[in-house]
TrEMBL record:
Organism: Formicarius rufipectus
PROSITE patterns: USP_1
Gene Ontology terms for molecular function: cysteine-type deubiquitinase activity
Signal peptide bounds: none
Key words of the record: Cytoplasm, Hydrolase
Record PANTHER family: 40S RIBOSOMAL PROTEIN S3A
Key word Cytoplasm present: yes
Name of this chain's protein: CYLD hydrolase
InterPro entries listed in its UniProt record: Papain-like_cys_pep_sf, USP_CS
Transmembrane stretches, start-end: none
Length: 226
């Protein structure tokens, strides 16, 4: 355990701490969905550190303590988290979520994020989306799309844009944190064998009523052709 706080890892320090054997979050008993989500949310970014320090009783103190002291801080300090620490978090989620399968079954990351962010830690939704004139709040966005013949090794930028287009979605506002779940179809079939991470994400075309340039004359656009 690491009761003191450690900042997220950056640049050369991230490579030094996280690269090599016995690094990352140790998997156990179908924990991969949670391990990958926790690593993505906390190893190299502080944007969601409010989850670790929200005042009690607005959040569950036991879950927050395990998340901060047994998972996030050891990950940032040594680059390694034991499977037992994640299992203790899973046991707490089982009790709070009234779902026994959190300790042994593989689940969808969105279910885990919704439970820990909304029901346990009480965080406001991170995303506001609009589709067909209706707004919806959510904590993460999962990419859904049909098979794309021209995309062999896509970037995250391409997947997000095409997914928003096919679902007729727009971002109501610029999100403080944009959690994106890549498309996945189990062990037997995967739509893409590889996806290239986009180190920056341009959401200009995804924003609702955002001023944009006309592709013909260069002035402010007044019409959009999907």
């Amino acid at each position: 355990q690491a009761p003191e706080s450690f900042p997220p890892l950056w640049n050369e320090e991230a490579v030094r701490v996280l690269e090599g054997q016995m690094k990352g979050i140790q998997g156990h008993c179908n924990s991969c969905y949670m391990d990958a989500a926790l690593f993505s949310l906390f190893s190299c970014t502080s944007v969601l550190d409010s989850m670790l320090f929200m005042p009690f009783p607005l959040c569950d103190r036991n879950v927050q303590g395990i998340l901060r002291d047994e998972i996030v801080n050891p990950l940032r300090r040594t680059g390694f988290v034991r499977a037992g620490s994640v299992m203790r978090l899973r046991e707490q989620l089982t009790d709070k979520g009234r779902c026994s399968s959190f300790t042994n079954a593989e689940k969808d990351p969105e279910e885990f994020l919704n439970l820990i962010m909304q029901q346990i830690l009480g965080i406001e939704p991170l995303l506001k989306l609009q589709s067909g004139g209706q707004e919806q709040d959510c904590y993460c966005y999962q990419i859904f799309m049909d098979t794309q013949e021209d995309l062999v090794v896509p970037t995250v930028q391409q997947l997000v844009e095409r997914s928003f287009l096919s679902s007729e979605l727009k971002l109501v506002e610029i999100p403080s944190c944009f959690i994106i779940q890549m498309p996945r179809f189990g062990k037997e079939y995967k739509m893409f064998s590889k996806i290239i991470p986009s180190l920056e994400l341009d959401i200009t075309d995804l924003l609702l009523d955002s001023p944009r340039e006309c592709c013909l004359c260069g002035d402010v656009a007044t019409l959009e052709c999907l």
